[in-house]
Amino acid sequence: TVSHSLNHNMTLTEFKFIWYMEYSHRMWGRVVGLAYILPAAYFWRRGWLSRPMKGCVLALCGLVCFQGLLGWYMVKSGLEEKPDSHDIPRVSQYRLAAHLGSALLLYSASLWTGLSLLLPRHQLPETPQLLRLRQLAHGTTALIFLTALSGAFVAGLDAGLVYNSFPKMGECWIPDDLLAFSPMLRNIFENPTTVQFDHRILGIASVTAVTALYLFSRKVPLPRRTRMTVTSLLAVAYMQ
Description:
Main location: membrane
Protein name: COX15 protein
InterPro entries: COX15/CtaA_fam, HemeA_Synthase_type2
Helix content: over 70%
Distance between the termini: 38 Å
Keywords: Heme biosynthesis, Iron, Membrane, Metal-binding, Oxidoreductase, Transmembrane, Transmembrane helix
């Protein structure tokens, strides 16, 4: 195979390290699935779930199974023989982004559901300031999600290896080969230079949006829990 001809110097110990990483990831995924599905089935049988919660549990259960299926579909793309290509075997960046996006949705939905049950909802007066803060928070969430997905394209194309200087990319602010592919739309998903450039821009935009959200939240009277959340978000964004 192409993989064997490229990695003929690999020792058995080196191969085992890669194999166990993949095997551990699969096993951990299955443990996560069981840790969700078994208690959910137990709570359902005992009649502890309300009708809306049953719908929520089924949706999350479906998402858990879909996540596993997407993982298999992603790995499959890295095992297909490509007779026209002698490059290092790698999974499709599209499937990698789908797998990561699905994981983020599953995690966010699980966390949201858990916190909704554990913490009572704050009843705040719907002031124009609060509505604006909520809109800004939703917009920031979407931007962070998009940034994370663009990171999957960077990983899938090894785009991080193209330029390793910041804030410039090499000697340029805007690289010459940014739109080298045709048609133009292909560059966003398949040109490593463009993929890295987009990820940088989205990352900077995300940090800017989080900072703006934090500064705006200081002007709005908020409960202590909400204020702690916004401050934590700011800290994590800058750490990232």
